[in-house]
Amino acid sequence: MCPGGKKMNLPQVVQYCFAGITVGSIYAIVAIGFNIIYNTTGIINFAQGEFLIVGAMTAISLNHFVPLPVAILLAVVITTLLGGLIELVFIRRAQNASVLHLIVITIGISILMREAMLHIWDEKVRSLPYFTGTGVSTITIFGAHISPQVLWVLGVSAVIVMGLTPFFRFTLTGRAMRACADDRMAARLCGINDKWMVTLSFMLSAGIGALAGCVISPVTQTQYDMGAPLAIKGFTVAILGGLGNSMAAVVAGLLLGLVETFVMSQFDVAYKEAVSIVILLLILVFRPSGLFGKHEITAMRAV
Amino acid sequence: MRKQLVKVTGILVLAIVIAISGIVKAADEPTIKVGAIFAVTGGASNLGAPEAKTAEMLVEKINKEGGVKGHKVELIVKDSGSKPENAISLAKQLIEEDKVLAIIGPSTSGETMAIKNICQEGNTILLSCAAAEDIVNPVASYVFKTPQKDSDAVRRIFQVMKAKGITKIGVITSNDGFGIAGGKQLAKLADLAGITIAISEAYDKQETDLTGILTKVKGKDVNAVVNWSIVPAQSMVAKNMKQIGLDVPLFQSHGYGNIKYVQQGGEAANGTIFPCGRLLIAELLPDSNPQKALLMGYKKDYESRYKEDASTFGGHAYDAILILVEGVKKADSIDRDKVRDAIENLKGLVGTAGIFNFSSSDHNGLGMDAFEIFTVKDGKFAIYK
């Protein structure tokens, strides 16, 4: 079953690493979006995957008329506004709903968005062009090859994390958002407009999701119903890293990608999924606050 | 007394009206109800969407021309979302509630295998648009299929490999009905063709990146890669191979016959080799080819109506309806069993996939000559030489 185990040479090992980084970077950038809404409301937004697809689809449509950077920028803006609108229409109305209720509502939103996208963009697979080079360009390191688009995914993830971490830690708005998740009533008593903080978190999360969707589109291709499977992986990674922690999500994403790829290199490909589920179960049992999370529940929300 | 008279007259009038409407209805031939289960959405939508469009277009045309032997055709299209479990409930609905004469589709092998027995037990004709040989082998008396056999596709691919001196290959398949069935045929026929399969792996049909699995293939020093799937991952294979520097020929299955897969693959798709029906290059065929007129006609109708390129998949739905119509004409009846018998005895019927010659042991009716070998040149399909 695993004859290649001992014979692997350096370029091969590096090539597996690159393959792991490629999928890992996709997991990571999807996972980041989960953390923002969680940081403000304590809910998991299961429509996060759909934000990615809306963003990518919008950019693909706009790219027929405007250059790629402008198309992506506009797509992010449009998706951000859509995120805000969705919060105003669905989440804000459910005023006294529990966290569980809200999570179920987000599942409903994801189904609604998926069907709406099917009507707007039909069922066809599309993708954005590669940002640099084409589908065949590669960068060669240590005799192994990697697509430049993967570097784009990693770079954009890094920029998002570097922007989010100080935002949640140092800015007044960021801290106010976290305060809402900690104790909504106390936050309100301190004069924080909690309702708008939640709206803001949906907007931010949708915008980042749209950006993620655009960056991964050349690699993964984009189809209206791809959101859910992407979101499941992203969710796994977010839990693995520790919910609410964007930096941890990126590290966990890359880690899961690498583990999956090396499992694949030694065993049948089918075991790959099993391994990621087993890892998730182990984490949930032994370290429910995630690999990088602190044990106290509240501390999980610290960035 | 007067009241009673009104009542009696009323009943009489009602009875007459019912009687007349009955007569009027009896004068009309009953409609032929045809069910269709297509993967209009979901992973196999590149198959199901053109199939549904083709079926609707063709039925409209048939009805405009007066129907089949005076019977109008009523087409009931259901979307399976590419899921076998949906196909099961839709098939039951079509058989038990709509009481259709026949079911066209489903689009994929997995869905077809899920409903093969349901149709057989429900005595309803099934004209599948999916490729796997398992659909008609073993033969179920009510089950037929229109695409060419996957075993023939494999044989054609191996012929090309032999000519190119390829002896050691890597196989990757999607883990759905089509991929699994194709993988089985490749494994079964490789020995006979003198080809070694150094590695055979299945990937998830929703896979978003294949560099990992292809790295594994690369480690085996193969002369060529065969990918067997119908999912969007098909276009990813070529790109990912180039990205990891796996510079060997890529062979795809006849599931690659939609130009959209090529467009998605970009310049990486150039050089891909695959077997497929002749629809893709209809204009390049000599006028003497018996299929040419039909292919050109279908292509023109489809492309002018839907403003997109025709694909072989739509052709499979075209053939399914064509076969059913011919069956009804030949049986001169809309009795399921009579139509079934008639279809089983159809010979020399020219369709989009090839020339059909059915028999009680062959419910596909196509031979290896139904395939042409294609390649991709400058983002377009071309005949492989």
Structural class of chain A: mainly alpha
Mean pLDDT of chain A: 87
* Number of extended strands of chain A: 2
Shape of chain A: globular
Number of helices of chain B: 12
Determine the CATH topology of the largest domain in chain B. Answer: Rossmann fold
Descriptive report:
The complex is a heterodimer of chains A (303) and B (385). By secondary structure, chain A is mainly α. Chain A has a single domain, classed as ABC transporter involved in vitamin B12 uptake, BtuC. Chain A has eleven helices and two strands, in the order ααααββααααααα. Chain A has a two-stranded antiparallel ribbon. In chain A, helix 1 crosses helix 9, helix 6 packs across helix 8 and helix 9 crosses helix 10. Chain A is globular. The termini of chain A are far apart. Chain B has a five-stranded parallel β-sheet with strand order 2-1-3-4-5, sandwiched between helices. Chain B has 385 residues and is an alpha/beta fold. Chain B folds into two domains: 200 residues, Response regulator (Rossmann fold, 3-Layer(aba) Sandwich), CATH 3.40.50; 126 residues, Response regulator (Rossmann fold, 3-Layer(aba) Sandwich), CATH 3.40.50.2300. In chain B, helix 4 links the parallel strand 3 and strand 4. The model of chain B has no long low-confidence stretch (mean pLDDT 90). Chain B starts with a helix and ends with a strand. Chain B is elongated, with a radius of gyration of 24 Å.
